Amino acid sequence: MLLNAVIITLREVLEASLIISVFLALSQLLERKLSWLLLAMFVGAVGGFVYGQNLGAVSMAWDGMGQELVNAGLHLLIFLSLLVFMTSVPHQHKKRWRIVTLIATITAVVVAITREGSEIILYLSGAMSIPNMLLPVLIGSIVGAGIGISVGIYFYYLLINMRLKYGMWLGYLFLLLVAGSMISQAVEFLIQADFIHAGKPLWDSSNLISERSVIGQLLYALVGYEATPAPIQVVAYVSSIAIIAVATVISYQFRTPPHDD
Amino acid sequence: MKSIRIYLLLALIATITLVNFVSLLHGYQASMEKAQNLFDARLESTARLIASANSAQVADQNIAEQQTPNTYFQIWGSGGQQLLTRSRNAPDEIIGQLDEGFHEVNHASYRWRNYVYQDRHLNRWVVVAERIDIRYSLAEEVVLESLLPIVMAIPLSALIIWLAVGVGLKPLSVLAQQIRHKKVDDLSPIKMERVPKELTTVVNNTNALLIRLHDAFSREQRFSADAAHELRTPISVLKVHLHNLKQRFGDTDEDIALLKTGVERMGHLIEQILALYRTSPDQAAVKFEDIDLTKLVQSVVARDFEQFERKQQRIELDGEKILIKGNQFALETLVQNLLSNASKYTPEHGDIYVSISSKLGEALLQIEDSGPGIPTDMHERVFERFYRLHGDQHASDIIGCGLGLTIVKDIAAMHQAEIELGTSRFKQGLRVSVRFRLEEKK
Q1: Contacts of A80 (CB under 8 A, 6+ apart)
Q2: Which chain B residues have a beta carbon less than 8 Å from that of A131?
Q3: Which of B277, B239, B289, B229 is nearest to B261 (CA)?
Q4: Among B15, B21, B146, the residue to mutate for chain A (most A Cβ within 10 A)
Q5: Any idea which GO molecular function terms this record carries (chain B) (predicted)?
Q6: Are A144 and A213 in contact (CB under 8 A)?
Q7: CATH topology of B4-161 equal to that of B185-283?
Q8: How far is CA B395 from CA A125, B269, B308, B372, in A?
């Protein structure tokens, strides 16, 4: 039971903590105030609690496909926020673009924490209702959350202690992979809701790296690792990364000379 | 990195958490495996015990009652063809296969781990089974007891690290405090007891820099003072010769008038350089005392009244008794320079208004003239050394060297006062406001 609690909490906390640490680091590298991010984290935590408590009602919506569709929508929203964030960063010398970046950051952080938080709340409230499960679930959740947050802290300090240029690019690269992972997960939810046909898995690497191992969880959070991905997931993953990469390069090409408006 | 202390706390806690929790997971898995092996050993010995305690070879209709619901046993005879006896909760059929060893089977909605023992002597099979979930829970309960302290230790470690890092960084905060509390004129070396190895270079180099800075300041001050002082004598001699020339050739000679302006300009410059040296904020050992600001302004107006009278300017003074802490000579120089500027730039028959008031813990000295004023975008620049509005195009009859407002700014800084330029109450003109902080009454 402890291992289940560790895996589930680690999966959700690691993803959220890496996203938050990258946004915290990039905000610091872009010399932005961190108070908005802290507020977004708080709103996300409240959102996660509320969504987690009402997942039963959400699941019943749309002929029992509510949870899958809402989750697919939330992942799509994170993807769009990342797209807006990465294309707006090259225009930071303009005030209105700075506001766009801030809104995209806040949206991504709030939605990410809401989504991951709701999963943890759902699991904890379910597991703790079983007798004698309190201690293993509690210890497992603390261990999973502890590992997830610790990796997030390392990643944050790695980014802010790198030279500005490299820190920015590593942060960008990570967000690019997260964006791909978001679309891949959105597609997975749509497959679960029978909106998309899954087809045979393209490969099975579970013997090589199990999704349930710590390394598997880290890779899942970092690059959206799936041991048995559907072909449509791989296509969506690669296309979404290509879209953001091209949009970011175009945005860099079209940036205007710095002057404040 | 905003705070070294927070960085160290987070980095150390993250490391401790990561290392502890990953080893905790490995320990948990190893302990669980060990516990399962112990349970298996117990199951095997139970099967052997049942076989030796029960030697029946024909079917017994009495079902054993003394079993717990988490375990069951069966004894099969005739090579597994006939059920000889069983516990009440045991099935009456063979679950799985009668192969000697451990197996996992499903029975009564639960997963069971059984051990099949072949009693070769009596040609029987003894099957003993335990519910896996109960075995797992029991094992987990024991293992978790040992893991709980590791989890509980993390917040305690955080507290200890926070305190330890605070103690470790104390020399740094002591150094920062010393530098922060250094007065602007204090260029003495930093004194620290037991300087840690990491800070030795910082302290030594800072002290060396302070000594070099002190020497450089002293050289600059000595040079300015000596140069200005040495120049005073030849200027005085020049003035005497000029006076003699005027006696000989009369006041109307244009060359003599130009010479007079030049000498006066040079004399003014030297006086101002001397004043600048004496009123610099870096100048050590300035004596501060209680000074009645209004009385001081009155005395300066009275002393320099000739300059206003010469241009037939009206000067009005409005003030009450306000005591501030300050240096008499420096404040006189400040008022004198501001009044001199007001008079110089106010045309003949113009107005000058001086007011001294106090409000909200501040003493406010305002000098307003009816001159041309200073454009807002020049308000910062006029305080720079040797900067004069309109540069060399300045009206030639106004003597100045561009040091007056610099001196005023230095004196204000020495008294921690703020200067603000604005528009005067007259149709046009400059208003200079100097805000002195009043000491709180005890």
Answers
A1: none
A2: none
A3: B239
A4: B21
A5: ATP binding; phosphorelay sensor kinase activity
A6: no
A7: no
A8: 86, 17, 18, 12
Residues B14, A160: C-beta atoms closer than 8 Å: no
Domain boundaries of chain B, sorted by first residue: 4-161, 185-283, 286-437
Contact criterion met (CB < 8 Å) for B18 and A157: no
Q: How many CA atoms lie within 13 A of B322 on its CB side?
A: 24
* A77-105 as b/e: b if 16+ CB within 10 A: bbbbbbbbbbbbbbbbebeebbebbbebb
Provide, as residue numbers in chain A, all residues whose Cβ is less than 8 Å from the Cβ of B35: none
- Could you tell me if the ipTM is greater than 0.90? no
The CATH code for residues B4-161 is 3.30.450
Q: Are B316 and B354 in contact (CB under 8 A)?
A: yes
What is the phi/psi pair of residue B117, to 5°?
-110, 130
B111 DSSP β-pair partners: B106
How many whole angstroms separate alpha carbon B140 and alpha carbon B318? 88
Centre a 10 Å sphere on the Cβ of residue B81 and count the other Cβ atoms it contains: 9
Structure tokens at B430: 């400059």
CA B328 – CA B288 distance, rounded (Å): 8
**CA nearest B175: which of B213, B201, B141?**
B201
Closest-CA residue in chain A for B3? A157
Q: Do A150 and B25 touch (CB under 8 A)?
A: no
CA distance B111 to chain A (A): 16
- When scoring B12, B13, B140 by the number of chain A Cβ atoms within 10 A, the one with the most, hence best to mutate, is B140
Q: Which of B430, B271, B274 lies closest to B366, judged by CA?
A: B430
Per-residue pLDDT in tens (0 to 9) along chain A, 261 residues: 788 888 888 888 988 898 899 988 888 887 777 888 889 999 999 999 998 888 888 888 888 788 889 999 999 999 999 999 999 988 887 888 888 989 999 999 999 999 889 988 888 888 878 777 788 888 889 999 999 999 999 999 999 888 888 888 888 888 899 899 899 889 988 988 888 887 888 888 888 888 877 788 778 877 778 888 888 889 999 999 999 999 999 988 887 765 544
Query: What is the rounded CA–CA span in Å between residue B156 and residue B130?
Result: 40
- Contact pairs from chain A to chain B, CB under 8 Å: 58
Q: Which residue of A has its CA nearest to B2?
A: A28
Nearest to B7 among A6, A147, A157 (CB): A157
Q: Which residue from A139, A160, A214 is facing B147, i.e. has the nearest CB?
A: A139
The shortest CB-CB distance from A143 to any of B7, B14, B151 is to B151
Q: With contacts defined as CB-CB under 8 Å, which chain B residues touch A146?
A: 17-18, 21, 154
Residue contact B25–A3, C-beta within 8 A? yes
Question: pLDDT tens for residues B85-101?
Answer: 888 888 888 888 888 89
CATH topology of domain B185-283: Helix Hairpins (1.10.287)
Tokens coding B146: 């040992």
> Helix or strand or coil: residue B118?
strand
Q: What is the pLDDT of residue B356?
A: 93
Residue ranges of the alpha helices (H) in B128-196? 132-168, 170-180
Distance CA(A236)–CA(A190), nearest Å, equals 12
User: B138: nearest CA in chain A?
Assistant: A132
For residue B225, which of B268, B286, B276, B284 has the smallest C-alpha distance? B276
Residue B272, token pair as written in the block: 């101002």
A136–B1 CB contact, under 8 Å: no
**B286-437 homologous superfamily:** Histidine kinase-like ATPase, C-terminal domain (3.30.565.10)
Do B18 and A147 lie within an 8 Å CB cutoff?
A: yes
| Contacting residues for A250 by C-beta, under 8 A, at least 6 apart | A87
